[in-house]
Specification:
CATH class of the largest domain: Mainly Alpha
Number of strands: 5
Structural class: alpha/beta
Number of helices: 13
Largest sheet: 5 strands, mixed
Shape: globular
CATH architecture of the largest domain: Alpha Horseshoe
């Protein structure tokens, strides 16, 4: 007999909490192993000073005062250019892996040493072509800073613009904005976010076709649960405000079906007040979103993120979806 949605959701919600805690432990371990290889192992002939290696060890840790201090100190190290060269080579080897800490280190050095540094942008272009939005966001942001010096893009303007335009199809507004800053600086154009307008300009400028179909690789379901002053539970999805959990269940089911049809990775974004995130109290946070999590996990949506309700998300760019499955 098929379990009811409520029973299934309850089981999955509890499992989700456990998976979250286990995932955090595994992610910390994997991040440590990955960044050990990425940050602390200079290539032959590119030895870093022990002091610089120690700073990179701090950079790869969790956000903290020590990490912030290390990021501020890197640009002042005598071997800062060697750090840049090393990290860019390591990005080139495995552009698809999580390079969050590497990109933070590169950004901190670039912010200070922009005028005198040497920087190969090709590894950043490789990252932009992968399917990890956080990598894309940080790499696009870094390109926006580097674009203040046109010398970095001589002969690579076309490749850079071609790589940035597909990012405009993302639902993540901060990724789109970072890509837009880089596009405007490198191209000299002042177009808005419209991917079609940028595509038309690129094809006219370079006589090269740029197809955006398939540029989208994830589909976001963004929901903001909250209680009114009268105690009524509301689930806000875009401009719609649902008052029944069954209505939320129907919307999630439709979302999952659309993701499956277009072979997109489904991601649920739950918007919560910033104060709830600052407490770092997992149990209190789950109490605020537990009913939403039950519905999501009951329909096999397991990639769930809570973010501050001040973060902006955009409607999906349907024209950049992959070809749908044949019914």
């Amino acid at each position: 007999m098929r379990r009811s949605v409520e029973h299934q959701g309850e089981r999955d919600s509890t499992g989700f909490r456990g998976r979250l805690r286990r995932s955090v432990a595994w992610l910390l371990l994997l991040a440590t192993l990955a960044t050990l290889a990425t940050l602390a192992a200079p290539a032959r002939g590119q030895e870093l000073t022990p002091e610089t290696v120690e700073l990179l060890d701090l950079v790869r840790g969790a956000p903290s005062r020590e990490q912030f201090g290390a990021l501020r100190s890197l640009p002042g190290r005598p071997d800062w250019q060697e750090v840049v060269n090393l990290l860019l080579r390591q990005i080139r080897v495995k552009p698809e892996q999580d390079h969050s800490h590497v990109l933070l280190a590169l950004q901190s050095i670039t912010d200070v040493r922009l005028a005198t540094m040497a920087f190969d942008i090709d590894p950043l272009l490789l990252i932009l072509q992968t399917s990890l939005w956080s990598n894309q966001y940080r790499a696009a942001k870094l390109i926006g800073k580097l674009a203040e010096q046109p010398r970095f893009f001589l002969g690579r303007e076309r490749a850079t613009i071609r790589t940035l335009i597909p990012l405009l199809t993302s639902q993540r507004a901060k990724l789109v904005q970072s890509a837009l800053v880089g596009l405007r600086k490198v191209s000299g154009q002042d177009l808005d976010r419209d991917p079609a307008a940028w595509t038309h300009w690129f094809e006219d400028q370079y006589n090269e076709r740029l197809g955006l179909q398939g540029a989208v690789y994830e589909l976001l379901f963004v929901v903001q649960p909250f209680n009114t002053e009268e105690g009524q539970r509301i689930y806000r999805i875009g401009s719609d405000e649902l008052t029944e959990l069954s209505a939320l269940h129907a919307r999630v089911k439709d979302f999952r079906g659309q993701a499956e049809r277009y072979r997109l990775h489904p991601v649920a974004i739950i918007l919560v007040p910033q104060d709830h995130l600052r407490t770092l109290d997992v149990d209190a946070l789950f109490a605020e979103v537990d009913d939403v999590v039950r519905v999501l996990t009951g329909l096999d949506i397991t990639d769930i993120t809570t973010v501050a309700d001040s973060e902006e998300f955009l409607p999906p760019c349907l024209t950049a979806f992959p070809t749908p499955r044949t019914p």
